[in-house]
């Protein structure tokens, strides 16, 4: 597959739904060719690729467990083979398993650590090896690292680690002209966020935001587009995209 001259290439993990889907669509609108990554839902990924191609953009689907280094090596290789390189990696893939520390299942803990932390490390490692000069690596934290809501302990533990990993990687890539940042969304209306929450709980979280609404995936994609494109002087930072949630 050939790409237009000077086109930039992005790999978006977890792009088959939620924030990842909105990010992929926004980057395509900004002129990127996009690799739509999925872990389990190939149909959704293929549907998004079809929509992008039908609208005149360029996209491929790549699959694999983000915590499996061989699967991610294969995914990055597929992107490079299809488009000639990788300029931006956006790692939105993650799971949210809530519960109080005292009762939390260690099986769930192992699962959330594997996907959210090991997965972010594996993707960041491959990105650090593959992203071209002028590129960007964008990982995902959460605003709950600051709000510290009960039942979010294991989830926040993984995301705080990802945040620190990202900021250190930015410094390790000195001289490469590659930015590394983390985006920390507030309460955002995705299936991942809404699952298991009562209407009352959702309304309470929306009311806690000064803008008095939940974020939308497009709100988060706006920040990613900024970091992936014009924000060349923003590096080693965590951007809280949360409507002012304190």
From TrEMBL:
<dbReference type="InterPro" id="IPR036291">
    <property type="entry name" value="NAD(P)-bd_dom_sf"/>
</dbReference>
<keyword id="KW-0560">Oxidoreductase</keyword>
<dbReference type="GO" id="GO:0016614">
    <property type="term" value="F:oxidoreductase activity, acting on CH-OH group of donors"/>
</dbReference>
<comment type="similarity">
    <text>Belongs to the short-chain dehydrogenases/reductases (SDR) family.</text>
</comment>
<dbReference type="InterPro" id="IPR057326">
    <property type="entry name" value="KR_dom"/>
</dbReference>
<feature type="domain" description="Ketoreductase">
    <location>
        <begin position="8"/>
        <end position="186"/>
    </location>
</feature>
<protein>
    <submittedName>
        <fullName>SDR family oxidoreductase</fullName>
    </submittedName>
</protein>
<dbReference type="Pfam" id="PF13561">
    <property type="entry name" value="adh_short_C2"/>
</dbReference>
<dbReference type="InterPro" id="IPR002347">
    <property type="entry name" value="SDR_fam"/>
</dbReference>
